[in-house]
Amino acid sequence: MMDHFLFFTELASMPVYDVKGRRLGRVKDAALVPLVNSSRIDRYLVGGGDAWLTIRYDQVRSISLEEGIFLSDEHLTPYHDDEYMLRLGRDLLDQQIIDVTGRKVVRVTDLTFEVRPDGTRDTLIVSDVDIGVRSILRRLFQGVLPPLWIRRLQAPIPPRSIRWEFCNVVEPDPLRRLRLNISYRKLESIHPADLADIVEDLAPAEREAIFETIDSEVAAETLSEVDPKMQASILEALEPEKAADIVEEMAPDEAADILSELEEGTSEEILEEMDSTGKTEVEE
């Protein structure tokens, strides 16, 4: 192929051919399995008529922008949703993620893959999340103009993207976070004031997910920087035990001020979970 990269907008709707060159359908989505590999495309979901097929990465012989995807294995299976899959089209495209280096919340408008040939197969590796005008233009003309024309059209526009390893996917469901191997540990290195700005831009369930997961000391420092109107709602959404761990890391007077903004029952539940020393200091 002419370049060793591919965009998700180009992969979506790309034709797929079996070992005999017969067309099976078009790519409908692609998925990572983060517990296995955090950046390699593990599954291609191909639609042919009413049914979708699942193609493993090791069943792909070649991927070409000009010709499509050709397989090396004809033993394909029907698609069944897998809770360990992070589907790019469904779960990432148009969703908010955290840019850890830029310290901000961004919306995914496309993804860039590196195409890695090894002599046996072509493998796609997620390299960047695209957020700029170039990716919006690709989306606008997807299916209207040939991909090569779109590439020429976007050439004068500077790219805006974030390296995949510096992105944090936000997932409120704790069980799904576990299955998708999502961690917020990278966020703990961000200055609390910057992290506070990030969580203020998120939905309530996503804020809760971050405070529930990150280190309690970091959570306390971050909570201190959050808009006071939001502090109480964050604590109220947490399990009392986690809320108590965070409050214990705060200065007693600051902790007392936040607890005074909570419903009396919620405040009492948090105090009950605190150790005796911390509880006494706050109550004083």
Automatic annotation (TrEMBL):
Disordered: annotated segments: 261-284
InterPro entries: Mg_transptr_MgtE_intracell_dom (IPR006668), MgtE_N_sf (IPR038076), MgtE_transporter (IPR006669)
GO terms assigned for molecular function: magnesium ion transmembrane transporter activity
Cellular component, GO annotation: membrane
Domain Magnesium transporter MgtE intracellular residue range list: 190-284
Residue ranges with Acidic residues bias: 261-275
SUPFAM superfamilies per UniProt: MgtE N-terminal domain-like
Residues of the signal peptide: none
Protein name: Magnesium transporter
Organism, as annotated: Candidatus Acidiferrum panamense
